[in-house]
Amino acid sequence: MTYRTSRRRALQLGLAASLAAPAIAPAAVRAQQGWPAGPITWINPFPAGGGTDVFARPLAAQVGDQLGVQILIDNKGGAGGTVGASQAAKMKPDGQAFLVGAVHHTIAPSIYKNLDYDLEKNFEPITMIALVPQVISINPNRIPVKTAVELIEYVKKNPGKVNYASAGAGTAHHLAGELFKLETKTDIVHVPYRGAGPAMQDLLAGNADMMFDGMGTSAQQIKAGKLLGLAVATPKRTAEFPDMPTAAEIGVPNWIVSTWYGLWAIKGTPQPIVDRMYQEIVKALQTPKLQAIWKEQTAQLGGETPQEFAKRIRAEIEKWQKVVDAAGVKLD
Known about the structure:
Layout lengths: L1 E2 L3 H25 L8 E5 L6 H17 L3 E5 L6 H8 L7 E6 L1 H8 L7 H4 E16 L9 H10 L5 E4 L5 H13 L4 E4 L3 H10 L4 E5 H9 L4 E5 L4 E2 L19 E9 L4 H14 L3 H9 L3 E2 L4 H22 L5
Parallel strand pairs: 1-10, 2-3, 2-4, 6-7, 6-8
Antiparallel strand pairs: 4-11, 5-8, 5-9, 5-11, 5-12
Helix pairs in contact: 1-10, 2-10, 4-12, 7-12
């Protein structure tokens, strides 16, 4: 079996949409009078052009068309997404503003000790919109290995001599590396950059040895032969790289890491509006246009229920807190 956007998932999304519509319609008619009251804003707490933008912008355009209003993406980057999230938490819960973010928000509580917001208390989960698996990519000119097993053996023989680039301290890329180090009992030096782009550029230029990165970013470089992909942090092999082994296959079964993106409402937003937005996202994810974009980015379709998304958030917060504590991660 492969890790991919599948016909089965599309059918599940269709069922979710058909079930959601009649369930919320009567209440929605009453509670949504006057909504949307003009353009809707999705606050993206990461810089323009990043991974969140890749999925948020086409999704916002499609959902906006369905609702008959414009959905604006307002990028408010800074401090691992916490600056924008803090601003979003203070927005009026009237259904005109939402937070579109990523897995990084579940890492932030364990990294930033003085947050002025609480992800679970100040926001209402709507759904995950996309999920991209992490992959180990190496510069083959820097490390003389061909497989992930050989990489682990090489690093153990050369502790502290191999480095990995990341999008920055406290990011999913960083924590993926720290989790890998914990699970393999290896010593790999972390080199943080200001974004995944600069990190990838240095890896390609031969100024870094390896990187734990989202497959969407690494796929083209791997296919072009510029990087060597050694393993995916997923339970199953991917459709894009069916010959690339999984975490379990290289002897690291607990190294399951994905970069996912999601949408939250401001806490206190009327439930019918939350339900309607969820329904519209599920509907949008069924469109061939969005499915083609997701496939191009090697991303799994989102669309899980708000309850499922809430469980994912809680589990990831607990997971990354343990990794941060065990690895002794501190911001540079």
